[in-house]
Amino acid sequence: MIQYREFTKVFGIHRAVDALTVEVPAGAVVALLGPNGSGKTTTIKAAAGLVRPTSGEVRLGAEGRPAGDAVARRLCSFLPQRVSFPDALTGREVVNFYRRLRGLPGEATDRVMRFASLNGAGNRAVGTYSGGMTQRLGLAVAMLPDAEILLLDEPTAALDPDGLSTFDALIRSRRQAGQTVFFSSHQLGDVERLADLIVILVEGRLAATLTAGELAARLADRGVMRLRLAHAEASVLARVQAIAPQAVWAGDDLLVPGPAAARLGALDAVRAAGGVVEGLSAEEGRLDEFYRSIVGGAT
Amino acid sequence: MAALWLCARHELLLAVRSRWLQWFAAVFAGLALLVASSGYILSGGHGLQDFARTAVSLVQLVLLIVPLAALVFGALTLSPDRGAAEILYAQPVPREVILAGRVFGLFLALGAAQLLGFGVAGLAVQWSAGPYGASQFLVVVALSLALTAVFVTVAAALASGEPGRRARTLGLALVVWFVAVILFDLAALGVASLLKSGAASRLLITAALVNPVDAGRTAAYLAIEGTAAFGGASLALLRFTGGGASAGAMIAASFLVWVAVPAWIAARRLGRADL
Questions:
Q1: Which residues 6+ apart lie within 8 Å of A241 measured at CB?
Q2: Which of B20, B34, B220 lies closest to B109, judged by CA?
Q3: pTM of structure
């Protein structure tokens, strides 16, 4: 469990996080979403004990240890957003160093090297790694301890599809083990696949706390259905606008924005007006628009 | 303690694989050899000097090069790189322990490079001129290691803090070197020349203790050839302390303070930093 109570962090004159009060429940996979500069990294780093609160507090575990406490740091494992390791070391040497620092047995190195699919590159210098491989190595280091809490700051940003599969497997295994995962991401796919709960930060403030299903529904409500019709006829638009007032023509395409539930009715209205549908696609609402709507209070 | 030693070994391994350190070791060995032979060359002779003359000649090289190497390597190595610092300092080990291990590892690496240089020069001198004055040569080795310890911790104090300021730290390190090695003596002598005798003596005594480079020079000459090679500040210190033993003790205390205070500042800055 991670508890943020009125957590505020100010850097100079910039208020990165403002009075954040939220709880990441034990055993849950929680995603932290928000636009760039919304305070996600600061929030996660505060839980890792790297950033000290200007005011408020961040506590970890059932006993509610302050995040900066050495015992609290033993409860968690952290992967930074842009992890880097010394170029002169091999991947295996890096993992071995962190394993020894945690006082873990030697087999832990082999386990995480296998899991991170770095076996082939484990004896190569980190300086020869691609960004994705460095990220995998970071994941390997983060999963060395069987920590109660896993903190991951944009862990999938540099991963290829194989790396994403590895990441998914890691999260699922941690969830099965009853451990807590708190990760930030800009990838809606990651969030939908993995998160039980989504915390949204905008401009350093808690904007919303949603389940994955609630977020998907809200994005769908901000989606657009695009109908390609044989002919653009005014009567068709009038019938559809009775159901979806914001519907407009875009060439021969009829764009029908609005809730997903209204789309079937709009389609029926097109057919009833004699429209011939030649193609159909639907786009979900975009996250950036969703954030803006939250800031504007239109949730 | 295990974590400290682990971090020290890690830093030592990184330093040993660093081309910069390999270059430093090679250049230091070359310069030490050059110094060992230059005394005779300058006086029209040939071959290598004995240990005693080599030790005197090496003092200036050590006072010039060793602080520079310790400050530059320290600034480059100990300035936290954001991605690396975040994952390192998120481990369940106190930041101060990690820092102490890294500083110790860097000290070992620089010390090993210097020992290699001294070793090459020492072997050549031993082979050419015999063991006469070897103890004085060892004094210079000890001085070199002491200055390394001082300036690596000074570099740690400059480097510890917010990540991503390596260039700024390097600039500061060069300023510290310039002040300690070049400017300080000139300023102290200049100001002393404007003062009355008593005040000037007190200033020079303070200067000889406050600046580790001056303290090192005084200690080295005191151990190698007595007061004959002393400048004004060193002589004033010797008169004030009443003898070589107490002067040596004060200089040793000065070195200890110069290691302890920057180490405390480094630990405090790192402990308070947002990484």
A1: A247
A2: B20
A3: 0.83
Chain A / chain B CB contacts < 8 angstroms: 74
Q: Is A199 on the interface with B (CB under 8 A)?
A: no
Q: Which residues of A touch B14 (CB under 8 A)?
A: 86, 88-89
Tokens 């029926």 belong to which residue?
A268
pLDDT digits (tens, 9 = 90+) for A219-230: 777 788 888 888
To the nearest whole Å, the CA of B9 is away from the closest chain A CA by: 10
What is the tens place of the pLDDT at every residue in A123-153?
A: 899 999 988 889 889 989 998 998 899 999 9
Point out the residues of chain B with pLDDT beneath 70.
Answer: 39-48, 225-234
- CB burial class (10 A; 0-12, 13-18, 19+) of residue B1? exposed
Residue listed under structure tokens 């009567």: A235
Query: Among partner residues A79, A85, A142, which is closest to B84 by beta-carbon distance?
Result: A85
Asked whether the beta carbons of residue B18 and residue A73 sit closer than 8 angstroms, the reply is no
With CA atoms as reference, the chain B residue closest to A53 would be: B274
- Output the six-digit token pair for B215: 């303290």
> In 3-state terms, what secondary structure has residue A104?
coil
Structure-model confidence comparison of residues A114 and A293, the more confident one: A114
Under 8 Å between Cβ of B190 and B85: no
Contact A184, A153 (CB under 8 A): yes
Interchain pair B275, A73: CB under 8 A:
no
The answer to whether the CB atoms of B86 and A83 lie below 8 A apart is yes
- The DSSP 8-state label assigned to residue A88 in this structure reads T
Q: Please report which helix (H) or strand (E) contains residue A129, including its range.
A: none
Nearest residue of A to residue B90, measured between CA atoms: A48
- Which domains does chain A carry? 2-217 (3.40.50.300), 223-283 (3.30.70)
Tell me whether residues B10 and A85 touch, CB distance under 8 A: no
Residue type, A102: R
Q: Which two tokens stand for residue A237?
A: 């638009």
Interchain CB distance below 8 Å, A74 and B81: no
Flag if B83 and A52 touch (Cβ within 8 Å): no
**Can you tell me the ipTM of this complex?**
0.83
How close B275 comes to chain A (CA, Å)?
Answer: 5
Sign of CA dihedral A66, A71, A75, A80: positive
Q: If phi over 0 gives left and psi between -120 and 50 gives alpha, with beta otherwise, what is residue B85?
A: alpha
Helix or strand run (H / E) with residue A7: strand A2-11
Q: List the single residue in B10, B87, B91 with the smallest CB-CB distance to A80.
A: B87
> What is the chain B residue with the closest CA to A9?
B274
Contact across the interface for A138 and B14, Cβ inside 8 Å: no
* Residue B200 to residue B271: CA distance in whole angstroms: 41
Other Cβ atoms closer than 10 A to B138: 15
